[in-house]
């Protein structure tokens, strides 16, 4: 009887090591990377967070954090690489939005791919007025005035249905920007 219990205990310990050790190391490297980044050791932070991102093929969060670290240093090629990984591993609205921003930062203009990623982000989070505003600005810049106006109408509708004290509502400054964009769209549509 004793040898069976000993064997089972040994199997549980060995299995636990293989199952939980990677998780413990991932958490360890993640905390170390955040500490390194907050103390200004960018290269150390990137190296440690790279270990976290490479350790788990299903984890989009560490890849997204790595993309944001690179973006904070204006390293758009690397930011785009990890933003794409984050999007492929975990297709959320925030990951689509950030991927669109990295594509735009590399291209310097609203390409078809940028607009498609913004459309995906909005499809995943249709009530996000800030995504819609950025999308409307890009549509305007690419000459798609009617689509831009449609986004503005959606923003106004969503904003009007939020409680007055909601932090989701547009601020007065954001409403001014929205009004300015709308006036530009109207002017361009009248010229056509």
Question: How would you describe the overall organization of this protein?
Answer:
By secondary structure, the chain is an all-alpha fold. It has two domains: 92 residues, Tetratricopeptide repeat domain (Serine Threonine Protein Phosphatase 5, Tetratricopeptide repeat), CATH 1.25.40.10; 67 residues, no CATH class. The chain has nine helices and no strands. α3 runs antiparallel to α4 and α8 packs antiparallel against α9. The chain starts with a helix and ends with a helix. The mean pLDDT is 89.
Structure summary:
This protein is mainly α and 192 residues long.
Radius of gyration: 23 Å
How many structural units, i.e. domains?
2
Q: Look at the helices and sheets and give the structural class.
A: mainly alpha
* Euclidean distance between termini CA atoms: 89 Å
Number of strand segments: 0
The gross shape turns out to be elongated
CATH architectural name of the largest domain: Alpha Horseshoe
Number of contiguous helices = 9
**How are helices and strands ordered from N to C?**
HHHHHHHHH
Helix fraction bin: over 70%
* Overall pLDDT: 89
